[in-house]
Amino acid sequence: MALIELKDVSFTYRGSKSQALKNISLSIEPGEFVGVIGPTGAGKSTLCWAIVGVVPQILLGKLTGEVTVKGLPANRTPVAKISQIVGLVQQDAEAQLLMTDIEKEIVFPLENLSLPREEIERRLNYVLDLVNLRADRLRHPFYLSGGQKQRVAVAASLAMEPEVLILDEATSELDPVGAEEVHNLAGSLKSEGKTILMVEHNIDELAKHADRIIVMNQGEIVKDSSTRSVLSDVDFLASLGIYPPQVTQVAQQLISQGFASHFLAGQLPLTQEEGVEHIKRLWT
Amino acid sequence: MAEPVLLVEHLYYRYPTRNNYALDDISLSIPEGEFLAIIGQNGSGKTTLIKHFNGLLKPTRGRVVVDGRETTGLPTSDLARSVGYVFQNPDHQIFAETVRDEITFGPRNLGYAAERIEKALKLVLEEMDLSGMEEDMPFQLSRGQRQRLAVASVLAMEPAILIIDEPTTGQDWKESTRLMELVRQLNEKGHTCIITTHNMNLVSLFARRVIVMREGRLFLDGSTQDVFSQEDTLLTAGIKPPEVYSMARLLLPGVHFDKPLTPVDLGKLLAERARSPRLNSQFEVSP
């Protein structure tokens, strides 16, 4: 059985006339790294909230269809229980940090679970190393950079040992290097076997780590395929107002300049390294 | 050369509660009609710097001259005639009950005549694509519309200099480029435009000059293409240039660009290279 499964899910927020999600069907297997892209208002955050049960349990409205997480129905399993399986990190890390130092921030939810002291220490040390913040563990989150704050938020989620980590535009307020830190962290979590769902506007970074990309528009999934095949469709992305990776745009331009035979349809280079490697062959 | 519309000379700034300088000896000159992007890591001093341009902050040492007037001693309300400032989050600046009240608030405070205010209102509504929404409540507008309303209410004061702090927050690519297109049109009409942003693709598409801040200092200042061509130097300031510049450096080493590089332009240049074998030795790809 898939780890996360949505069957024909539609959702309308209370008081709203239009559906935020329309007939969404989706399954995510353990260990997958899935990217979610789409214009604002496409339903990306609503999708994340439906998976953790915040929609419809806290953000009220009418949900039809079925969302299951490890077989548990997300619409009627306590959010506290689902959050032990799925961790959610959102755009504004600051809004999620509440303690006076990093260590307290990370152990707070673990103490709430009444875990034994040794177990809390083990998890604390593990996540501090993972996000590379051991040296800063007694600092007040206020004095951290944006990238560091976001890494604290990720660490606090990971200390719960969720099987799935959802990052909902977690890098959008970060500078380019801070954003890269979070993306690389997500990539290394994937190699540790975690399942990742990442909503992201920064497609150049997403292209490096995601196995699969879901494209949403106006509450619907309009594409769900391998990262390469989704991002190779430069015209499709542009039609939705999404900025395709610059590497694929360069390749697309070379194709329209008569070098189509050098590129396989739907298989354009995605990363800078791939692109340079591939384009070099045009004259060597 | 024309008088600079904005002149910064040996500017130092220290927040009252801190020991170190948030701005450390900044000097720069911005001519009228410039389209400038200020970039740098979180905490590098970008926002502290632009808050000096409209007098929200005053130099600890050094001076800032706006439109020929030194900001020290001038109230921000006075500088508002010359400098419009759009905050990162439109909800931090929107307060009125209708779009009309929001837009006309600034000009009314500056004491503009009713006729002039009506004319400005009509013009900015058109420019920001908000016509017909005069009586709407700002908080019922979409985020993108609220952002445009924030710009509109600043433009209504007809400032010579327009500053936009991070025009991309909470917006997708389409909305961001749409707003920037509007800013570009204003720039073409003669407004000096200054933006801060983390989105390097947007900088590359719109700005003609780029300033890189690092730890409170002015680290780089040059044309967009020259700044982005210095990848290794930029990385030490926490900036990654758009991918096309890295690709160009590896595939067309030594080639100088006279305007900001787009993926389409790079594709065309690469196609040219691939078609002209005799140029290959000249554009030898580094190992």
Descriptive account of the structure:
The complex is a heterodimer of chains A (about 280) and B (about 290). Helix content of chain A is about 40%, strand content about 20%. Chain A is of the alpha/beta class. Chain A has 2 domains: about 5-230, Rossmann fold (3-Layer(aba) Sandwich); about 245-285, no CATH class. In chain A, strand 1 and strand 2 form a beta hairpin. Chain A is globular and about 65 Å long. The N and C termini of chain A lie far apart (about 50 Å). The mean pLDDT of chain A is about 90. In chain B, helix 3 (about 100-110) crosses helix 4 (about 115-125), helix 3 (about 100-110) runs parallel beside helix 5 (about 145-155) and helix 4 (about 115-125) runs antiparallel to helix 5 (about 145-155). With about 290 residues, chain B is an alpha/beta fold. Residues about 280-285 of chain B have low confidence and may be disordered. Classes of the chains: A alpha/beta (about 280), B alpha/beta (about 290). The interface of A and B includes residues 175, 276 and 282 of A.
Gist?
The complex is a heterodimer of chains A (284) and B (287). Chain A has a six-stranded mixed sheet with strand order 6-7-8-3-9-10, with helices on both faces. Chain A has a four-stranded antiparallel sheet with strand order 2-1-4-5, with helices on one face. Chain A starts with a strand and ends with a helix.
Helix count of chain B equals 11
Shape designation of chain A: globular
Give the overall pLDDT of chain A as a whole number. 91
Output the strand order for the largest sheet of chain A: 6-7-8-3-9-10
Please describe the biggest sheet of chain A, giving its number of strands, its sense, and whether it closes into a barrel: 6 strands, mixed
C-alpha-based Rg of chain B, rounded:
21 Å
CATH level-two architecture of the largest domain in chain A: 3-Layer(aba) Sandwich
Specify which chain pair forms the largest interface. A-B, 41 and 40 residues
CATH class of the largest domain in chain A: Alpha Beta
SSE string of chain B, helices as H and strands as E? EEEHEEHEHHHEHEHEEHHHH
Order of helices and strands of chain A: EEEHHEEHEHHHHEHEHEEHHHH
Assign the structural class of chain A, choosing from mainly alpha, mainly beta, alpha/beta, alpha+beta, or little secondary structure. alpha/beta
- Work out the helix count of chain A: 13
Number of domains of chain A: 2
